[in-house]
Amino acid sequence: MLQNYLKIAWRSLWKNRLFSTVNLTGLALGLTASLLILEYVSFERSFNTFHPKLTRLYRVLMQPQSGSTQSSSAPGVILRANFPELESYCRIAEGLGNGMVRVAEKTIREDKTIYADASLFHLFQFPVQSGSVSELNKPRTVGLSLREAEKLFGNAAAVGQPITVDNQFGKTEYTVALVYENMPENSDIQADIIFSMATLANPSVIKDNSWVDPAGVGAQFVTTYVLLTPQAEALRAEQKFNQLLKTLPTGSTDQIRLQAVQFQHLGASLTDSFITFGNLGFVYLMSGIASLILLIAWFNYVNLSTALVSKRSKEVGVRKVIGAHRFQIIGQFLGESIILNIIALLVAFVVVDVLQSPFNALIQKNLSLSVLFDSHYWFYAFIFFLAGIGVSGFYTAFALSGINPLLSLKGGLLKSGKSWLRQSLVLFQFSISITLIAATFIVYQQLHYMQRKNLGVTLQQRLVMQGPEVGRDSTFLTRTAGFRNALSQLPFVTAFSSSGNVPGSGFNFSTENVLRTDQSSPDQKTSFAVLICDDQFFKTYGISLASGRSFTKSETEKPWSDVHAFMVNEATAAKLGYSPSSILGKTVLFNGQAVEVVGVVKNYHHLGLKEAIQPIVYWPQQNTTYLTAEISTDYVHEHIQQLKAAYERYFPGNLFSFYFADEHYNRQYQTEQQYSSLFTLASGLSIFIACLGLLGLAAFSAEQRTKEIGIRKVLGASVLQISTLLTRDYIKLVAIALLISIPMVWVTMDRWLEQFAYHVSVQWWVFAEAGLLTLLIALGTVSYQSIRAALTNPVRSLKSE
Known about the structure:
Elements: H1 2-15, H2 17-45, E1 57-63, E2 70-71, H3 76-82, E3 86-94, E4 99-103, E5 106-110, E6 113-116, H4 120-123, E7 128-131, E8 141-145, H5 146-153, E9 162-167, E10 170-180, E11 193-196, H6 203-206, E12 223-228, H7 234-247, E13 255-260, H8 280-307, H9 309-321, H10 326-363, H11 369-373, H12 377-401, H13 405-410, H14 419-452, E14 462-466, H15 476-488, E15 493-499, E16 509-511, E17 514-516, E18 528-533, H16 537-540, E19 545-548, H17 553-556, E20 565-569, H18 570-575, E21 587-590, E22 593-601, E23 616-620, E24 626-631, H19 636-650, E25 658-660, H20 661-666, H21 670-704, H22 706-714, H23 719-753, H24 764-790, H25 794-797
Parallel strand pairs: 6-11, 8-10, 18-23, 20-22
Antiparallel strand pairs: 1-2, 1-12, 1-13, 3-6, 3-12, 4-5, 4-9, 7-10, 8-11, 9-10, 14-24, 14-25, 15-24, 16-18, 17-21, 19-22, 20-23, 21-22
């Protein structure tokens, strides 16, 4: 019996090849998009889930009075000594150790480094391949990932071998204590080199960098993770930590908050105020888009299948007359639905394999179907797939099996099912399509706005070189001056600057201790960003001054403790209660050091348009972390080679690494660029699938009204009149869909735009464009069948059947 059902189902699908092809294409495309999106969703949801102690792991956050949170160090040693709830802790400092790594004659630049306690391997699941974890408690020891060990030592044993690191702390010799397996991609902690945290407690290593105190409370460069005991309650532990914090001589009113590591990537909910690595809202959005695209494909199936009622009514009538029960007819039509969906699923797997590489390049992640099947999301996806088959298949089967055999055999069944249902489904399809198209326009607008807005800083033609780490000896300052002089002799270099950071990359650090001399403490805690730069920084980046002057060269050459003049931006002046002109000459306390304000910088967007302009303090120093040259646009490749030659001549042993400031700055909008690309693909795919169904419905409608069209042509109707007759219903549906989509898009995208400190507003013409584009695509789809039907010879249309 089952074999007979399958055979009949296959014959029926083959007989109605147009409708089968439209359904198969729509379902395959919908399933392809859904599988690719679910790969991404599964990957984002899988972060940190491989740690066995995950439910007891918490990240320590500090919450200022403003309510926002930031990662910061906590008094881990004190906490462990005083609280039974705390089993262990681990401190991690990211980025501080980045620099040049040398082994024998091999030198590489490594930017994935951390300083960490050896307890890292107790709290987190990062298997050690060789060596001893306890050795990482000693200063000047290091752990290497398997990837890094192979890069430095090849197939030779790495444990016990020496490596030399040149970074901001100068030259330091380390001994390899252990080699661990490469950290999984779905880990928020990523490092190929782990320096022992005990190294930072050694004054001979950090030298004059007194700000590096890993044992301090509130050190902003350290993130603390804690492991609670199985019986401990996080809220109770948090309360005890804060009680202790109040007794410490920090003067801070911040509070400790414990964020579960299982929620640190995406957050516990959309209303979670803690900082995260990912975006839960985007994950939900992509899940919704995947579901909607698949629903559009299934709606096509329901639409086209119910439209075939009149063509298959006699078949159902004959089956009922010769004794077929309704459940047998239901089984036949349900079998067709299952076969079609299974074929579409198999096609989708093939298409996913073909599109995997370009999709991975688009979202900058290494995904595959194994990501989906390694998580529990494959189960939910399978249930959703079965539910879609069941609902669409059962509805169609019940609709077709309910035909009255007497009417069907007499030819009395002329209507093709419930037209209101088909119109409702088409309306839903176009509402979703218009919504996605309008959202795409708004995302593109915001992205274009961020990339084109006047930032108050000039980034074009600025080439940023990574400063030297190797060779910071007694000759370093002389060689730096020689390099600066050599660049001034190059005709294509119009300006040059050295700084501790650059626009788009952040600041050197931040502090709350910027006070007027008539204040003993700030009225309200304000965080001031600190940027270290030389006297040419503002000229090189085209940053204007609101009042006063820039630094002199002599001011940037003084030791840190001897600095008595600095600059601020307009936001800092306002925070301190001054205007840009009145603050000039005023003495301000900077971390207890009295300094005079000699210049006020006009506000500019140092970090991009996602964040409001921060209060910034500019500290004069000859810091060579970044070297920026303004160069002419002609013969760029040749000019870069000349810069490289000068760099290697004055800083031997260092790798010449560079990027262009404007490209680097715009890289922070990568997420928005991905949004734009994904929305474009999703909206294009949704309207394509919807139009596939529309094409099938238009073809069926034209076929059903063949005689009517013939009669109208005999009576004098023109091609335009007949085409309008066949298309006007679809125009109405698109217009209604536009009205439905407007409030959805307006509310959703307005909330999305609120995450940007500077953004565009939702304009009415976005909906007009989205509706017009959808209408033109729909008319183009329907018009082909309408014009074809209108051009048919009426003699053929009116022939007797």
